């Protein structure tokens, strides 16, 4: 148990460092170059962003083997949403990478993750700082729907490019005569994305109640 706690602390520390670097880099670039920095956000921080998101797949494994007590389905949905939008939609279409929505999406993701991994690291050591706890379980309720809207907008912006270039669209030869038109897949995924948002928001409210209930706050203070 102690070894697993150390491992989880190191994992949270690595994620905190990665997302803090991205978040700080975005702010400094915006303060230095203004709006010009928004168009090349992906080119400047995209590699680190992809590494952090790939690393987050481990969180599903942590839940499956029982060292993380979070609920599997909400965390699985949140991670797969990011993986699909980042690697399938943004990374595959260079024309989308320069859109302002990518900067907005990365800002929301990293703001949430810097707070979440800071909270997790302190929790591993048994430290519960009430303002940080409130921020971690309250801000996500506001920012997560905004991030879903940004994901949806990024998908809509990418559709014309998937239609023009035929990326990921597959047409099987005779006798199968079966084809997959990827823009239709993305449109169906938009519906799944917003249905999943309702489920995840409900889970976020449950987590907030569990961690910020009067009894829990008193116990953590003591």
Give a brief outline of the structure.
The chain has 222 residues and is mainly alpha-helical. It has ten helices and two strands. The model has no long low-confidence stretch (mean pLDDT 91).
Walk me through the structure:
The chain has 222 residues and is mainly α. 82% of the residues lie in helices and 2% in strands. It has 10 helices and 2 strands, in the order H-H-H-H-H-H-H-H-E-E-H-H. It has a two-stranded antiparallel ribbon. A hairpin with a 7-residue loop joins strand 1 and strand 2. Helix 4 packs antiparallel against helix 5, helix 5 packs antiparallel against helix 9 and helix 8 runs antiparallel to helix 9. One of its GO terms (molecular function) is very-long-chain (3R)-3-hydroxyacyl-CoA dehydratase activity. Pathway: Lipid metabolism; fatty acid biosynthesis. It is a multi-pass membrane protein. Its EC number is 4.2.1.134. One of its GO terms (biological process) is very long-chain fatty acid biosynthetic process.
Widest beta sheet: strand line-up: 1-2
How many strands appear in the DSSP assignment?
2
**Radius of gyration, taken over Cα atoms and rounded to an integer in Å:** 19 Å
Q: Kindly report the average pLDDT value.
A: 91
The largest sheet, given as strand count, sense and whether it forms a barrel, is: 2 strands, antiparallel
Q: Which structural class should the secondary elements be placed in?
A: mainly alpha
The proportion of strand residues reads under 5%
**What ranges have pLDDT less than 50 throughout 5 or more consecutive residues?**
none
Please work out how many helical segments DSSP would assign. 10
- What's the end-to-end separation, in Å? 24 Å
Family: Belongs to the very long-chain fatty acids dehydratase HACD family.
Main location: endoplasmic reticulum
EC number: 4.2.1.134
Pfam family, one: PTPLA
């Amino acid at each position: 148990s102690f070894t697993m706690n150390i491992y989880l602390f190191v994992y949270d520390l690595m994620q905190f460092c990665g997302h803090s670097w991205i978040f700080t880099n975005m702010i400094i670039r915006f303060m230095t170059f203004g709006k010009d920095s928004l168009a090349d956000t992906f080119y400047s921080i995209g590699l680190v962003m992809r590494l952090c998101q790939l690393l987050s797949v481990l969180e599903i494994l942590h839940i499956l083997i029982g060292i993380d007590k979070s609920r599997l389905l909400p965390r699985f949905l949140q991670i797969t949403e990011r993986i699909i939008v980042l690697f399938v939609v943004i990374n595959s279409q260079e024309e989308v990478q320069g859109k302002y929505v990518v900067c907005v999406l990365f800002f929301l993701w990293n703001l949430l993750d810097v707070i979440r991994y800071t909270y997790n690291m302190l929790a591993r050591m048994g430290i519960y700082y009430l303002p940080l706890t409130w921020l971690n379980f309250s801000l996500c309720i506001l920012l997560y729907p905004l991030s879903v809207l940004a994901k949806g907008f990024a998908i809509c912006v990418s559709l014309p490019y998937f239609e023009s270039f035929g990326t990921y669209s597959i047409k099987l030869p005779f006798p199968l005569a079966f084809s997959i038109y990827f823009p239709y897949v993305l449109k169906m995924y938009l519906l799944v994305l917003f249905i999943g948002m309702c489920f995840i928001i409900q889970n976020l409210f449950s987590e907030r109640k569990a961690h910020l209930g009067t009894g829990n706050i008193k116990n953590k203070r003591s």
